[in-house]
Amino acid sequence: MRWENGRRSDNIEDRRGMRVSGRGLAGGGIGAIVLALVAMYFGVDPSVVLNQAGSLAPTQDTRPPAASSPEEEKLKDFVSVVLADTEDVWSALFKETGKPYPPPTLVLYSGAVQSACGFAEAAMGPFYCPGDHKLYLDMSFFNDLAKRHDAPGDFAQAYVVAHEVGHHVQTLLGISDKVNAARSRAGEAAGNALQVRMELQADCFAGVWAYHANQARQVLEPGDTEEALAAAAGVGDDRLQQQARGYVVPESFTHGSSEQRMRWFSRGMQHGDPGQCDTFKAARL
User: Is residue 223 part of a domain?
Assistant: First the structure.
């Protein structure tokens, strides 16, 4: 991915090295963490668990953060460029509809973090919190993406950021509120199905970003598309469940299968039109 000459975002909040403890959690605290970790490994949106842990009382270690390596600083620089690029793309797309695009803030952390959605550990992976309009990322996840999910490469990493920004777009458009309200009235299976459609739409929105970023700035290099598709496949519910327990339960999917996630990312990247990302009306996912 050609990114070095890109604009850097100012919407980065660096909390790396700031240690957060889950001591004082309601109901024993550690139980919420364990449940969230289990949720992640079984394909459940961790924010669902985090939202139920809102009464956390974390403590923060105020010792100076450890110095980061040159490799980590370069990765931070890269993430800042990707975030800036999503800002440019979505600002232009929102402007076409006469609406402003307030960009999200990307919080970089190490180990654990406190958000408006609750306490989270790095093992849960990146997430977006609609309560504070922030994306949370421990950059060590990118190592996991490459090794555990077989998705190395910078464009695979960019896909991860763009997917979480897609959830921010859904929040701004009111989609998230509607889906959450519908899920609260639905049974477990129907609620999971709605969550799948929301996640696949975020994948499609990530593809929309990739289309416009390449049209405007020619960011793609040979193999980049394949890297993003590998990332989408690597975090499919079927693959995660197979890895975690050796079998797959489609009724429990909350993010979509590998094939579905690749298809919707590809759809967004092919058309560049957010209107093509209406997974809620799609007869076939």
Answer: yes
Contact at 8 Å (CB) between 256 and 264? yes
- Residue 249: its pLDDT value, please? 82
| Total domains, the chain | 1
Which residue in this structure is represented by tokens 């992640």?
Answer: 40
- HEC-encoded secondary structure of 122-134: HHHCCEEECCCCE
Q: What integer pLDDT is reported at residue 234 of this predicted model?
A: 85
- Comparing CA positions, the residue from 71, 73, 81 lying closest to residue 7 is 81
Average pLDDT over residues 229-251: 84
With vertex at residue 116, the alpha carbon angle to CA 120 and CA 57, rounded to the nearest 5 degrees, is 65
Following DSSP, what letter does each residue of 87-135 receive, concatenated? Answer: HHHHHHHHHHTT----PPEEEE-SSEEEETTEEEEGGG--EEETTTTEE
Domain range for 169: 12-277
Distance CA 275, CA 204 (A): 10
